[in-house]
Amino acid sequence: MNNRKIVEFGDFQTPFVLAKKVCQKLKDIHVNPDVVLEPTCGLGAFIYAAANSFPKAKRIIGVEINPFYVNKLRNDLFLSNYKKIEIIQGDFFKINWETIIEPQQSLLVIGNLPWVTNAKQGLIGGSNLPVKKNFQNKNGFDAITGKSNFDISEWMLMQISNWLNKKGGYLAMLCKTSVARKILNYHYLQKISTTCSAIFNIDAKKHFGVSVDAGLLYCKFDKKFQNHDYGVYRNIGTDSKNKMGHRNGILIRDIEKFEKYKKLFGSSEITWRSGVKHDCSKIMELTKTKNGHLENGINELVDIESTFLYPLLKSSDIANNRIKKTNRYVLITQSSVGESTNKIKNIAPKTWEYLINHAQYLDNRKSRIYKNNPRFSIFGIGPYTFAPWKIAISGLYKNIKFRLVNLIEGKTVIFDDTIYFLYFDIRNDAEKAYKLLTSEPAIEFFSSIIFMDEKRPIKSSILNYLSLKSLEKNQYIYLDSTTKYNTDIF
Fold first, then answer.
1. How far, in Å, CA of 223 to CA of 114, rounded?
2. CA nearest 170: which of 219, 242, 117, 111?
3. Which of 55, 280, 321, 437 has its CA 20 to 30 A from that of 92?
4. What is the DSSP secondary structure assignment for residue 228, as one 8-state letter?
5. pLDDT at 475
6. SS3 at position 253
7. Residue 81 — left, alpha, or beta (φ > 0 → left; ψ -120 to 50 → alpha)?
8. Residue 294 CB neighbour total at 10 angstroms
9. Mean pLDDT score of the chain, rounded to an integer?
10. End-to-end Cα separation, the chain, in angstroms
11. What number of other Cβ atoms are within 10 A of residue 398's Cβ?
């Protein structure tokens, strides 16, 4: 299979030693199916492992789209005299699964589904996709900016969960950890009948040569139960686990820790904002050289007024506490979303000329959010952008580090859109909130609900779950009584 096809079909063949270890774990927790189904069986590692591990199984069925794999597997099985194994050539997205599985039999669905996203498929022109529709019901800004992107395995696991919800049985599937959590969240939201679920982490680098968090997703389906808490295990061989589940309508990473600080859960009295979005760093972001000149991202020296130019901090600056000075600047063309940018022409003619001369970059920004908006528009902009005091945190870095940021060179600091921040006009108010946010209870609360293995682990939605007023009210923190604060900010 060539590289393009490997990407299209997410073709990471499971080593037999791992398939065998998975089947042994299932035996250890008393899984004993009548039928074993692997819906994308590849070269059959799980087929062989299941045949050896579940001798009481009456049927072992493998389905595979690749004819080369199908022929090879059928030939190998014929030579090995495995009579209860059936290999079917078929497309997961087109096959009628109801005709394959008898409803009264205990079923185990096992395997390793494609590790590829629909966006990646689009880039390579792949066709290994379900019928296109917005199955996650994303809309508006989320859909426009790509939040409707999903792993193909996520859709497939939803379909499998729906089968098993009707008839009962077991699911044991290797997948990305992020996908496993999404499926368990789907079970919770759709009230899928599961009695026991777990994620057993695996070393994807060792087994598949990829640097991604992955694991074995295990679920037992039973119409008599609905238990959506689950354990996360360090590896397949350990009994030590971290209990996860849903509380207050959200997924909790550490239920025990969350229960300790659950009084803090609510709504932030000040809304967390994200930094400015412009999608054109080559033109909109400038760097000051050692000689004091400004240079853009295409190595041009730039001579413009300072009127619309502001000091810029990025995620790496916030994460590494580089907040006192910067040599990076950003053009802020509006003070609110949708505001006309024509004023720049009169106030700062050199800046306007610079924008016009580089309009080809800005006019060709791909995101649809810029359409039907004034030329040279930006987003994530409002009165909060220009507040002198801010508490910032990077959404990308895998730690909970808040920074108290003030003016640089006498101007308000602008953040890029990977940073979230609170904003204040009064220093004492900012210091009060900073003291609360950097307290142990606040950090522990956040650590109970933040999943650090995600691409952008820290999100504004998560930050907004902490009520600073509750944190202070429950006397977790004792503020300096000699300092006067504006008590209306919370």
1. 28
2. 219
3. 55
4. -
5. 53
6. coil
7. left
8. 17
9. 88
10. 60
11. 13
